[in-house]
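Re: Re: ligand-bound prediction request (bumping)

Still looking for help on this. To restate: I need the protein modeled with coenzyme A bound, output as structure tokens. Inputs repeated here so nobody has to scroll up.
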Amino acid sequence: MLYKNSLDGVTESMLEGFFVDWPNPPSTGTHLKLLKNSSYMVIAIDEDVNRVVGFITAISDGVLSAYIPLLEVLPNYKNQGIGKELVKKMLEQLRHLYMIDLCCDDDLVPYYEKFGMKKGTGMILRNYDRQAGINIHRG
Ligand SMILES: CC(C)(COP(=O)(O)OP(=O)(O)OC[C@H]1O[C@@H](n2cnc3c(N)ncnc32)[C@H](O)[C@@H]1OP(=O)(O)O)[C@@H](O)C(=O)NCCC(=O)NCCS
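Reply:
Sorry for the wait, this slipped through. Here it is.
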């Protein structure tokens, strides 16, 4: 498995299969765009098949805080430690910052506690009509 924080050589077709169970998922092109626009990201590439099989992103003010909006590993690659490696590598990149936050379901609390994270209370807002990403024609 190759872990990278650069998108050199990564094409849309290498990003098939993510956003499992999302009713209105972003396209692979939109996925590539959000990876490019993130302040930090790490991808896991299966070099045997030249596909991205896991990714994590963070957005940051570059001074105090970062938020981790997305982490996903492709279904066929789960439970091999790829998620753990992605989180570890992302937290290494963010270690100069004060606040590192993410939201997750209750069942994943023990998963993130293993990285030293603590359970807090979050507030969220979701515009479901925007789940696939901004429509570039309508803004
Ligand atoms: C969460 C996720 C990224 C973990 O990736 P992974 O590569 O399978 O994780 P690892 O191999 O590092 O770790 C697997 C461990 O996570 C646990 N785990 C994974 N998903 C879990 C879930 N939804 N609830 C509870 N535990 C979970 C596994 O049981 C396993 O536990 P173990 O180490 O005690 O055996 C992956 O399951 C995934 O993509 N899930 C769907 C998207 C998602 O929920 N993302 C997180 C958003 S906050």
